[in-house]
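Sharing a chain and its predicted structure for anyone who wants a worked example. Both blocks are below, sequence first, tokens second.
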Amino acid sequence: MEYKPMDVLKPIQLSTRELDETQPLTSVEMGKLWVTYTGNSMSIQILTYFLQHCEDEYIKTLLENAIALSKDFMQKVETFFKENNFPIPLGFTNDDVNLGAPRLYEDRFYVHYLKYAAKAGMSLYAVAIPLVMREDIREFFVYCSQCTTILLGQINNVLFEKKLISKPPIIPTPKGMEERSSTLAYLSMMEPIS
């Protein structure tokens, strides 16, 4: 099934010059772009270290995909900063990681770390979308969310295939609409998960 939001939503045609790319960056836009840049620069260093020790081909591909996304996001943020005469953050560099250090973790740790890092990125991008005013920057954070969502899907698929996570429990499908009180009664009979 293909999902197309604009098949459901009616477009609103506003020509708001106050929200276009000619406007200066707001404090929120500066902050969210800065954090996106520095966070992804850190990810590149960590994931590059993981990649050189990774043996599993699927997990290696996940690491490569995550590094490619981080580099892409950083390049786009750098373009915003240059266009707005904003200083490029130092971020993390090769000097911040010892690529010659011995292996510390198994491959399965790498994929769990990736899931955690991707969820943190998703949180940042999701919070940014309603706060930024400039349309070009909002579209950038929507793009970041879309890319990270696809990466998270790949991560979940690899985790599941390698039996590193299991599906959430399946509960019985309701047979029809029930009164709210009977649903609450049903839930109160359930044992807590320990």
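Comments welcome. The chain has one domain: 23-188.
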